[in-house]
Specification:
The protein is an alpha+beta fold. 20% of the residues lie in helices and 48% in strands. Strands 2-1-5-6-7-4-3 form a 7-stranded antiparallel β-sheet.
């Protein structure tokens, strides 16, 4: 489901925005970096969480999450720079194989956000 251009973006640094909403609809955005992400063989996206406590609370109430990411280094629809909007669900883990995989890459991670994309759309 994830296109090659998405993986090209991950080769360069850029900001990742993670949008959640509480059960009452209160929106929250957290950020991380492209270089911290791990895409599993099943195309789940692992994101390190050192803080992200409000993101975790929101996803426990409402697991629907939207993520944007991009880079200026990859050609987009109309010139330099491209980005993606991903929608899907999130869960936080603090143990297990996925957590261990993330902890090896990002020792600062207290938990791992496991994002399961349902849709990926190029926005730029």
């Amino acid at each position: 489901m994830l296109p090659d251009k998405f993986f090209d973006c991950l080769k360069y640094e850029g900001v990742v925005a993670i949008g959640t909403a509480s059960a009452q609809g209160e929106a929250h955005i957290a950020n991380t970096w492209n270089s911290y992400l791990i895409v599993t063989e099943e195309e789940r996206i692992l994101i390190p969480a050192a803080g992200m406590h409000k993101t975790e609370r929101n996803s426990n109430e409402n697991p629907h999450v939207e993520i944007t990411l991009g880079t200026r280094e990859v050609e987009g629809h109309r010139g330099p720079g491209t980005g993606f909007l991903l929608t899907g669900t999130a869960a936080f883990l603090k143990e297990g194989a996925l957590f261990d995989r993330m902890k090896e890459k990002c020792p600062f991670a207290a938990r791992v956000l496991v994002f399961t994309p349902e849709r990926c759309r190029q926005t730029l």
